[in-house]
Design brief:
Elements (H helix, E strand, L loop, with lengths): L17 E6 L2 E6 L2 H9 L5 E2 H9 L1 H11 L2 H12 L1 H19 L8 E4 H17 L8 H21 L7 H8 L2 H26 L11 H8 L3 H4 L2 H33 L4 H15 L3 H5 L2 H13 L5 E7 L3 E2 L5 E2 L4 E5 H5 L15 H5 L32 H18 E4 L10 E3 L2 E3 L5 E6 L3
Parallel strand pairs: 2-8
Antiparallel strand pairs: 1-2, 3-5, 4-12, 5-8, 6-7, 9-12, 10-11
Length: 452
C-alpha cells in the first residue's frame, strides 16, 4: 500500500481530501471523499480527460498503437457486439474453461496437487478469453497464449520506460528499449493469415456478410472498420486492437480470479454455500449467461474479495486539460494527473462495516431488499466500489464480459475441485509496487478433484 502525506501547503487545509505525490515526470494528485470524487465524475473531457491521462500513463501511442488512440473503435466493439454475443457464444467459453483446467490443473480424486496460482490462472484466462476473441485452434497455441500474457507485462514495463524520455526520443526508445515491437510482430505472425482470409472472403462475396462468417472479435473489428481510413494498414490496425483488448482483459481478470481463489482456499466455510448456489443455477439454467446472472452469492464473494485487495490503489485517472477547481476550492494546474483513492474508499469504516474483514455475502444480502436487486452487482455503478470505475461514461466497457467469465471460471472450480492452502494458512500478502498491486506470485494452492 502507498501512504501519501500532504506535500503542498495549499492542500494541508484539506486533510484526507487532496494530496500531491512526486513522480519522476511530475506531480500527481490523489483525491478522496464523495464531493471531490463527484467533481471528477461530473467533469467533461475538456476539463478532466480520461483519454489524455491514459495516453500519458500507458504511453498508448507507443504501447497499444497510435491508431487505437486516435480512432478507438475497438471500444465500440467491446461495448456492443462483444458484450451482446456473450449469450450466443457462452457454450464456447464453457468448453474452453473445461479444456484449459483439464490441461493446467489435472488433479486426481485421491491426491492433493500443489498449483502455482497466478501464472496458471493467466494461462487459463488467456485461453478462455481468446476462445471468445479468436476461436480455436489459435486460442490453444502455446506461443499465442504466452504472447498475450507477455504483452500485458511488456506494455506496462514499456510505458514506465517511455515516460522517462522526451517525445522526440520515444519512437527510438520503443524500438530499442521495449519488447513491444517484438510482441506486435509475433501477434502479426499469428493473426495476419486469419485477417487476410476474412478480407479475401469479403472480396469473393462482395459483402461483409459472407457464408460461414465467424462470430468473433476479428469479424466484429472488421465490421467496424467500415471506412476508407479505417481500412488503411488494416492488418496492423486489427492486430493492434486485438492486443489492446487482450491487454485490458487478461490482467484484471487474472488478478481478480487469483484473489478469489486465495480467499476461497483460506475460508473453507464459504465453499459449500457457493457450491450449492452454482449447482442449483446450473441445474435450472445450464452453463449459460442467464445462469451466471442468478449467482448472487458468487457475485458478492468475488466483489468482496476484490474490495479487500483490488487491482491497485488508484482509479478514475484524469488529466487536467486546464486549471481545474474542485468544489472545496482545491485547484490543480493544467497537465496534472488526478486519481481517486480506491483502496482508501474500499477500507473506509464509514462506508463498510468491519472493512478489513471478509464478509463474503456482504453485497448479496443487500440485494434481497426491494429495489436493490441490481444496484449491488459487481458490474453496477456504485459510488462506494471502484474496481471498474465508480461511475460515469468511462466505466470499464468490458466489465460485463469479465464478470460473466469470472463466474464461469470460479463456478467450474467449485463444482470440479476441492481447494485449500497447505497447513490452513491464510491469504498470502499481495505485492504492492507503488499504487499497483498483484496477487502473491509464489503462493501455492492445493487442488483435489471432487468425487461426484
Amino acid at each position: 500500500m502507498i501512504f501519501i502525506a500532504p506535500a503542498d501547503p495549499s492542500l494541508e487545509k484539506y486533510p484526507g481530501q487532496a494530496f500531491k505525490v512526486p513522480l519522476p515526470d511530475g506531480w500527481q494528485v490523489i483525491v478522496s471523499g464523495k464531493a471531490l470524487v463527484d467533481d471528477i465524475k461530473k467533469a467533461n473531457d475538456q476539463d478532466l480527460s480520461f483519454e489524455d491521462a491514459l495516453t500519458k500513463l500507458l504511453q498508448t501511442d507507443y504501447t497499444l498503437g497510435r491508431p487505437a488512440r486516435t480512432d478507438p473503435y475497438h471500444i465500440d466493439v467491446v461495448q456492443t457486439p462483444l458484450t451482446r454475443n456473450l449469450g450466443a457464444r457462452f457454450e464456447d467459453l464453457r468448453d474452453e474453461i473445461k479444456a484449459a483446467f483439464a490441461d493446467e490443473i489435472p488433479a486426481k480424486e485421491s491426491v492433493w496437487m500443489k498449483v502455482s496460482m497466478l501464472y496458471t490462472v493467466m494461462n487459463i484466462v488467456s485461453r478462455t478469453s481468446n476462445r471468445y476473441f479468436v476461436g480455436t485452434p489459435l486460442c490453444r497455441d502455446p506461443d499465442y497464449i504466452k504472447l498475450n500474457i507477455e504483452f500485458t507485462i511488456d506494455a506496462f514495463n514499456g510505458a514506465q520506460t517511455l515516460q522517462r524520455y522526451p517525445g522526440f526520443l520515444k519512437p527510438l526508445v520503443r524500438r530499442f528499449l521495449t519488447n513491444v515491437p517484438a510482441c506486435v510482430a509475433r501477434a502479426t505472425k499469428h493473426l495476419e493469415p486469419i485477417i487476410k482470409e476474412r478480407l479475401r472472403k469479403e472480396e469473393e462475396y462482395r459483402s461483409t456478410d459472407w457464408p460461414g462468417k465467424l462470430n468473433d472479435l476479428i469479424s466484429w473489428l472488421l465490421d467496424e472498420a467500415n471506412t476508407e481510413d479505417r481500412r488503411k494498414d488494416i492488418v496492423y490496425n486489427i492486430v493492434s486492437r486485438v492486443l489492446a483488448v487482450n491487454f485490458a482483459a487478461i490482467h484484471t481478470t487474472s488478478v481478480t480470479f487469483t484473489n478469489s481463489l486465495y480467499y476461497l482456499a483460506a475460508n473453507p466455510h464459504i465453499v459449500e454455500p457457493l457450491r450449492e448456489e452454482v449447482q442449483a443455477c446450473v441445474e435450472e439454467h445450464g452453463w449459460t449467461k442467464a445462469g451466471m446472472g442468478q449467482m448472487r452469492k458468487l457475485d458478492s464473494f468475488m466483489k468482496e474479495a476484490q474490495r479487500l485487495v483490488g487491482v491497485g490503489g488508484l482509479v478514475m485517472s484524469r488529466m487536467a486539460m486546464k486549471d481545474f477547481t474542485f468544489s472545496d476550492g482545491t485547484v490543480v494546474p493544467a497537465g496534472t494527473i488526478v486519481h481517486t483513492a480506491s483502496y482508501a474508499l474500499h477500507h473506509d469504516a464509514d462506508v463498510y462495516e468491519e472493512p478489513e474483514s471478509l464478509n463474503a455475502f456482504r453485497f448479496s444480502n443487500k440485494r434481497v431488499k426491494e429495489g436493490e436487486g441490481y444496484k449491488h452487482q459487481m458490474v453496477a455503478q456504485d459510488p462506494s466500489y471502484a474496481l471498474f470505475g465508480i461511475g460515469g461514461k468511462h466505466m470499464c466497457p468490458g466489465r460485463f464480459f469479465a464478470v460473466n467469465e469470472l463466474k464461469a471460471l470460479l463456478g467450474h472450480v467449485l463444482l470440479t475441485y476441492d481447494i485449500k492452502f497447505e497447513n490452513n494458512t491464510g491469504v498470502p500478502p499481495p505485492h504492492w509496487d507503488g499504487a499497483g498491486v498483484t496477487p502473491n506470485s509464489t503462493a501455492l494452492v492445493m487442488f483435489r478433484k471432487r468425487a461426484v
